[in-house]
C-alpha cells in the first residue's frame, strides 16, 4: 500500500467521481482507476460503488476513508515538524471542540491565533465529545478540548477551567421564578431536553444525579445545540447546559439560566493531546495559546460560569 494510493482514494471520495479527482490530481483517469483497483485487491474489499452519476463509498470504503485521512494528516504533520521553526511556527493545526464549548472559545481563539501566529492555519472542528475522543486517538485532530470524566488516561491533559452547568429554560417558564435558582431534584423533575450519552454534558449530569440519589427521567434527546435551543423556545422543555451556548438568548431575555443547588453541577474542561503522536511546534503553540485565551476569558467574565484552574 502506498501513500499515493491513499491520496488518490481520499480525493475520489471527496470529489465524488474518478474524472473530477483525476483532474484535481493531474493524473490520467486510467492510471487512477488502476491504483484504486490495486488498493481494493490488496484490502480484499470493494471500497466504492461506481455508477454513471459518480461514486459512493461502500461500508468498507467509509471505514478505510477515516483511516486514510488520519494517516495522511500524520504524514503532513511529520513533514511540518521537521521543517517548521520553533520560534516562528507554521503549518496546519486541527483542534476539536465540543458543541457546548465552541460558543465561548471558538471565536476568541481564532482571533488570537490569527494575530499571534499568522503562519499557522488553525482548523476548528465541532463534534460530539465521543467523536472527538476517537478522532484524537486516530490522529485526525491534533488537539481536543474534552471533559475530565476519569477516562482520559490515553491523553496528555492540561486543565483549563471548571465550568458550571445551569438549568436553562424559556424566560416565561415557572421553574425557579421566585428564587432565581433551582434544586437539582426540581431540575431533574422537569421535562428535560438533553444531548445523548456521547455528548460530554449528559454523563456529567447523570453522574451527579446518581451521587445525590436521583435520576434523569422522561428525557428528550437532541444532540444539535441549535435544535435543542429551538425546542426550549418552543416550550417543549428545559435543559441543563453551560451558559455559553445560550448566552445570546439569555442576554436577549428569551431564556433564563438558573444556578443549580443541592448539589451544584460543574465539569472540568481540559485540553488533550495524544500520548502516542507527537505535537508539531505549531500544535504545541496552539495548545499554549488555548490555555492563555481560556484564562483571559475567565478573567474578563466573558466565559460565564467558568472558573480558571
From TrEMBL:
GO terms for biological process: regulation of DNA-templated transcription initiation. PROSITE patterns: HTH_LYSR. The keyword Coiled coil does not apply. Keywords: Activator, DNA-binding, Transcription, Transcription regulation. Residues 1-58 form the HTH lysR-type domain. The keyword DNA-binding applies. Pfam families: HTH_1, LysR_substrate. One of its GO terms (molecular function) is DNA binding. InterPro entries: LysR_HTH_N (IPR000847), LysR_subst-bd (IPR005119), WH-like_DNA-bd_sf (IPR036388), WH_DNA-bd_sf (IPR036390). Belongs to the LysR transcriptional regulatory family. This is LysR family transcriptional regulator, nitrogen assimilation regulatory protein. It comes from Pseudoduganella namucuonensis.
Amino acid at each position: 500500500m502506498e501513500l499515493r494510493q491513499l491520496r488518490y482514494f481520499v480525493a475520489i471520495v471527496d470529489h465524488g467521481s474518478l474524472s473530477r479527482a483525476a483532474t484535481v490530481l493531474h493524473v490520467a483517469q486510467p492510471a487512477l482507476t488502476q491504483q484504486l483497483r490495486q488498493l481494493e485487491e490488496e484490502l480484499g474489499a470493494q471500497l466504492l460503488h461506481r455508477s454513471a452519476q459518480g461514486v459512493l463509498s461502500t461500508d468498507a470504503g467509509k471505514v478505510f476513508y477515516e483511516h486514510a485521512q488520519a494517516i495522511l494528516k500524520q504524514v503532513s504533520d511529520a513533514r511540518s515538524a521537521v521543517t517548521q521553526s520553533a520560534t516562528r511556527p507554521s503549518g496546519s493545526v486541527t483542534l476539536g471542540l465540543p458543541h457546548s464549548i465552541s460558543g465561548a472559545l471558538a471565536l476568541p481563539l481564532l482571533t488570537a491565533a490569527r494575530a499571534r501566529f499568522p503562519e499557522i492555519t488553525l482548523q476548528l472542528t465541532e463534534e460530539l465529545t465521543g467523536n472527538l475522543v476517537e478522532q484524537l486517538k486516530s490522529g485526525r485532530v491534533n488537539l481536543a478540548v474534552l471533559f475530565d470524566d476519569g477516562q482520559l488516561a490515553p491523553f496528555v491533559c492540561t486543565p483549563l477551567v471548571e465550568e458550571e452547568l445551569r438549568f436553562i429554560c424559556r424566560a416565561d417558564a415557572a421553574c425557579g421564578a421566585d428564587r432565581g435558582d433551582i434544586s437539582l431534584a426540581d431540575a431533574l423533575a422537569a421535562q428535560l431536553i438533553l444531548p445523548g450519552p456521547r455528548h460530554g454534558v449528559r454523563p456529567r449530569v447523570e453522574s451527579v444525579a446518581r451521587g445525590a440519589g436521583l435520576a434523569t427521567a422522561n428525557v428528550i434527546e437532541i444532540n444539535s445545540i441549535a435544535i435543542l435551543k429551538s425546542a426550549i423556545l418552543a416550550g417543549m422543555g428545559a435543559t441543563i447546559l453551560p451558559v455559553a451556548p445560550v448566552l445570546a438568548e439569555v442576554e436577549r431575555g428569551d431564556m433564563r439560566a438558573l444556578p443549580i443547588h443541592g448539589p451544584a453541577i460543574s465539569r472540568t474542561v481540559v485540553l488533550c493531546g495524544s500520548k502516542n503522536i507527537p505535537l508539531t511546534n505549531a500544535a504545541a503553540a496552539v495548545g499554549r495559546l488555548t490555555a492563555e485565551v481560556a484564562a483571559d476569558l475567565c478573567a474578563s467574565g466573558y466565559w460565564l460560569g467558568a472558573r480558571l484552574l
